[in-house]
């Protein structure tokens, strides 16, 4: 369910043109108008991926969804995270005040893969995944924040003796380098934060 997406429509009808895509469980949206016919007009950044019905990568869109899909959720107030894709930094807030900063790597686009850009918008971190493989790399402590994007530790490969080798991906932290996921530093910063801290908190 955490990967299920809904198409935003140009008009309040299942048959209307698609204008964007929203991830159902994790993505926050701005409700502009609730209609009497069971539809609502919302605004959000489109969460389109390479195989999405609507190819509007990271565009701010307005469209209609069935009101039954909308749910008011109160986020927990202790911690919040802002990812700055320009500076490639994660800003961790505690009780509304800046608490710490971590290095990240977000999506690196190219002419053939504009959908590699990490999705913009507001998201809830509600879907812990754990470790997963990406080719010959392992991405530990992954938390899904969108259909195809996860927040996880910088990937590592496994040496012949079973030890972890971060040498290939770790030097790229602080620059765009992923396929859309947010890679987070594994080494503790001066405040003692890293991906392991985020996973535990």
Would you write up a description of this structure?
- By secondary structure, this protein is an all-beta fold.
- It is 3% helix and 43% strand.
- It contains one helix and 16 strands.
- The strands form five sheets. Strands 7-8-9-16-13-12-11 form a seven-stranded mixed sheet.
- A hairpin with a 2-residue loop joins strand 11 (127-134) and strand 12.
- The longest helix has 6 residues, at 195-200.
- The radius of gyration is 18 Å and the shape is globular.
- It starts with a strand and ends with a helix.
- The mean pLDDT is 95.
Pattern of helices and strands: EEEEEEEEEEEEEEEEH
Question: How many helical elements?
Answer: 1
> What class, by secondary structure content?
mainly beta
Count of individual beta strands: 16
Can you summarize the main beta sheet? 7 strands, mixed
Distance between the termini: 23 Å
Strand content: 35-45%
- Portion of residues within helices: under 10%
List the defining traits of the structure above.
mainly beta; seven-stranded mixed beta sheet; three-stranded antiparallel beta sheet; 3% helix; globular
């Amino acid at each position: 369910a955490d990967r299920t997406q809904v198409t935003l429509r140009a008009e309040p009808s299942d048959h209307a043109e698609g204008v964007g895509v929203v991830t159902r469980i994790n993505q926050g949206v701005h409700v502009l108008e609730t209609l009497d016919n069971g539809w609502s007009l919302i605004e959000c950044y489109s969460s389109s991926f390479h195989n999405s019905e609507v190819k509007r990568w990271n565009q701010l869109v307005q469209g209609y969804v069935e009101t039954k899909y909308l749910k008011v959720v109160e986020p927990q107030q202790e911690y919040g995270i802002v990812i700055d894709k320009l500076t490639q930094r994660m800003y961790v807030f505690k009780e509304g005040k800046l608490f710490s900063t971590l290095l990240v790597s977000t999506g690196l686009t190219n002419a053939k893969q504009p959908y590699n850009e990490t999705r913009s918008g507001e998201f809830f971190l509600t879907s812990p995944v754990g470790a997963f493989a990406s080719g010959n790399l392992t991405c530990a402590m992954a938390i899904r924040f969108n259909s195809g994007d996860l927040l996880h530790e910088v990937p590592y490969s496994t040496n012949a003796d079973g030890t972890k080798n971060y040498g290939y991906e770790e030097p790229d932290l602080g620059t765009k380098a992923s396929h859309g996921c947010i890679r987070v530093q594994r080494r503790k910063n001066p405040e003692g934060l890293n991906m392991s801290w985020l996973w535990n908190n």
